[in-house]
Amino acid sequence: MLSARYTGDGAVETAQIDATDPSPGQVQVRVAYTGLCGTDLHIVHGAMDARVERPLVFGHEASGEAAAVGSGVEGWAVGDPVTVMPLDWDGTCPACRAGHTHICQHLDFIGIDSPGALQELWNVPARTLVRLPADLALDHAALVEPVAVAVHDVRRSELRAGDKAVVIGGGPIGVLIATVARDQGAEVVVIELDAGRRAQIADLGIQTLDPRATDQVEWVNDWTDDAGADVVFEVSGAAAAVLGATGLAKVRGTVVVVAIHPTPREIDLQRMFWRELRLLGARVYEAEDFATAVELLARGVIPADLLITRIVPLSKTAEAFGDLEAGRAMKILVDVRDHS
Asked: Is 39 a catalytic residue?
């Protein structure tokens, strides 16, 4: 079967690999679409070479249907439309025993630590499968995983209807956080440097701010009657954004760190102390976040068609990363069935 895999030194190749039957406890997914994301870009850049085995079939934002069911698996049948929550935990570590299996201390993030979705047939543990509504388009369903990230981020923040939220960074996850927060009744502004992304976000009816043209602290103070934002989501991954995020939050406000920061960052602890701010990390998702994400897509809350910049065949996966890196796309999907 055909796959796309990272081979090291920034190289992604399309290659034939052997298909295998699902093991006991596994379901084989016939992958339809796989989304490419910032974590995949980190892999291609070599930033995760110490963690990933090479060659690695990667990708973890997927949709498809069950193609075969391994022994001992109940509740699934060939043809069921599915997505995958790509987390496999050991169930024995302190985090798992405390009920936090999604951040297991020995977590297998499928598509990073083990083979992912950029292959025609993908064997995954049955417990990672999430059922899709029959009428949810499979290209839209490939967004369930990133939507679940946003749902988890907003849930962690304890955002409430009527709150004012600032999202720093208008990439796919930032836009999804803004969309989820708005659906929960919050007022939202997205701070984004790129004019093209600001225009896309404005098309969704979400207000934006260019921090180079407008003093962001002054603007947020005016917007909140000098209080500051209830919640600030740092999604950009930029050092300057982390340093500035605390200056946007109200007394006893919350700053949520969403972006992956590869190196330690400076943070204004004086501001943290002075305003009694709360700093939260938000990583991946839990089963309830996936369920909510499916429901939001099924209801049409998530503007999937506007977020999906284009769909490319499996053979064009390497080229798609160039467009992502250059900021020429919001979300690119790979049609794993298309070998043109």
From this structure: yes
pLDDT for position 333 = 98
Sign of CA pseudo-dihedral 327, 331, 337, 340: negative
Question: Using one digit for the tens of pLDDT, what is the confidence trace for 256-266?
Answer: 999 999 899 99
The C-alpha atoms of residue 246 and residue 160 are separated, in whole angstroms, by 20
Q: How far is residue 166 CA from its own chain's centroid?
A: 18
Is 339 a catalytic site residue? no
* Cα-to-chain-centroid distance, residue 48: 17
Indicate the pTM of the whole model: 0.97
- Give yes or no for residue 328 having a pLDDT over 90: no
CB contact at 8 A, 240 and 212: no
Burial 262-276 (b: 16+ CB within 10 A, else e): eeebebbeebeeebe
Q: Which of 34, 39, 179, 208 is flagged as catalytic?
A: 39
What does residue 339 show for φ and ψ, rounded to 5 degrees?
Answer: -105, 15
Quick check: 141 and 83 in contact, CB under 8 A? Answer: yes
Catalytic site residue from 7, 14, 34, 42 = 42
